[in-house]
Amino acid sequence: MVSKRTQPLARDAMAYVLAGGRGSRLKELTDFRAKPAVYFGGKTRIIDFALSNALNSGIRRIGVATQYKAHSLIRHLQRGWNFFRPERNESFDILPASQRVSETQWYEGTADAVFQNIDIIEAYGPEFMVILAGDHIYKMDYELMLRQHVDMNADVTVGCLEVPRMEATGFGVMHIDEKDRIVSFIEKPADPPGMPDRPDFALASMGIYVFKTKFLMDQLRRDAADPNSSRDFGKDIIPHIVANGKAVAHRFAKSCVRSSFENEAYWRDVGTIDAYWEANIDLTDITPELDIYDRDWPVWTYAEIKPPAKFVHDQDGRRGTAVSSLVAGDCIISGAALRKSLLFTGVRVNSFSSLEEAVVLPDCIVGRSATLRKVVIDRGVKIPEGLSVGFDPELDAKRFRRSEGGVCLITQPMIDRLESQ
Predict the structure, then answer these.
(1) Do residues 327 and 283 make contact, with C-beta atoms less than 8 angstroms apart?
(2) Which of 188, 372, 399, 400 has its CA 20 to 30 A from that of 256?
(3) 318 shares its domain with 196
(4) pLDDT band at 103, cuts 50/70/90?
(5) Alpha-carbon gap, residue 148 to 128, rounded angstroms
(6) 280-335, pLDDT tens digit by residue?
(7) Hey, where's the site called Could play a key role in the communication between the regulatory and the substrate sites on this chain (predicted)?
(8) Is 107 annotated as a binding residue?
(9) From CA 85, how far away is CA 51, in angstroms rounded?
(10) What angle do CA 268, 273, 277 make, to 5 degrees?
């Protein structure tokens, strides 16, 4: 069945972003903020990618469900995403777990995070719901996924990545037929099923789902009445529809947005220190796999009003330089050298210091003569003069959080302990 509608389906859709998770594998980076609120790419937060995809796709009704340590996330959303206007039939709702259903109940799972806000959703009356995870880095046109959902008359359409088969063991995997209909959904299988047209690849769930709103509401109410349910899309809702309805896979490659500089479909879960560091440092490549300079698909965020970056001093051994690096506004590189590093807003790097493969979050101060290599520095950290990190693995592991890949995460409490010794 091919839809005869010509107007964009996105105008009749609501995007609902699930942004309540901590992301515990990011360790101390999520001690005070939820994973979707973690900084990424020099200016943005991780959640800005899902929100920008929705906005650029033409969706003008958005809800964000928050839970774990949500203040940093909510403040960012209020500052950076407050331009939606009700008189244009636009809306942007921040939806913390607020005891709307029960006086003792937080969101129990991803499905419950939608169920508890059914009245708000139904008041807007969207025809379609696009359910999104708020913690991945990618560019995608949801209009194309909505179109497939309507054309195939699906009950649910599941966004899927094509990954090498044996790399899919950590995902929920779709077993599909020749028409991309999902015949079974297997959570973290030891032996993932291959795709009919690419047997060496498997289809892994991206945590992106499209429903007709009425159908989704019926499913959520049914699930809420089931005492054995864990209230989760991946564990409960989707398997039930696969068994009792029509579930269809949507291949990310069909709707991935690429600039002329991007060859591959780019999607990253930056859920570990190593993955987070690598995805940020990858942006320093001459032609990175993710083009954040694409004006046709901008990544929206809270744009702070700050002065430009500044590089000062020009003496041998004390020259403000940056090679293959990204430096945000309000940074001052004072007689220091950066190589393959990414600095967020408001960083100060003092004389005789050198940074290599460093990801430095906002408002950090690097003292004189520090040498830092392969590090992630949390917001507001003051690096003491002469500190050396990234050259002695055993010493680094005693003082800081050192990952399996050899990346050191540095936070202010770690520095405080070091200085008190």
Answers:
(1) no
(2) 188
(3) no
(4) very low
(5) 13
(6) 999 999 999 999 999 999 999 998 999 999 999 999 999 999 999 999 999 999 99
(7) 67, 106
(8) yes
(9) 16
(10) 65
